[in-house]
Amino acid sequence: MQVYAVNPLIQEIDGQPSYPALQELPEPVDIVNVFRRSEYLPEIVDEAISINAKTVWTQLGIWHQPSAQKAIDAGLNVVMDACIKIEYLRLRVGLTGNV
Q1: Each residue of 19-54: pLDDT tens digit?
Q2: With left for phi above 0 and alpha for psi between -120 and 50, is residue 65 left, alpha or beta?
Q3: Reported pTM
C-alpha cells in the first residue's frame, strides 16, 4: 500500500513528496482520505471524481451531504464522519483472518 500526501501548501512530509492536487498523483488511488474541514469537500469530491478514485473517506466530524450524494451519483463509495483506524480495529481486519 502506498500513501500519498496531498496539500498545496506543503512540498514534503517526512522526506516524501506532497502533491498540490489529486490530479498530480503519480498513479491511480483507491481511497481519498480527507482530513480537511467540511467546507472543502465539494472541491475534493470533484477532484476525486476527476481522477476516478474508488472511495472518498472523511475523518471524524467531517460531513457534507451534497458532496456525499455527488460522489455516490458518480459511482464512488463514500464513508463520512469515520476514522479508518477506528473502523479497522473495530472490524478486526487482518487480525484473525475473520471479519
Answers
A1: 999 999 999 999 999 999 999 999 999 999 999 999
A2: alpha
A3: 0.86
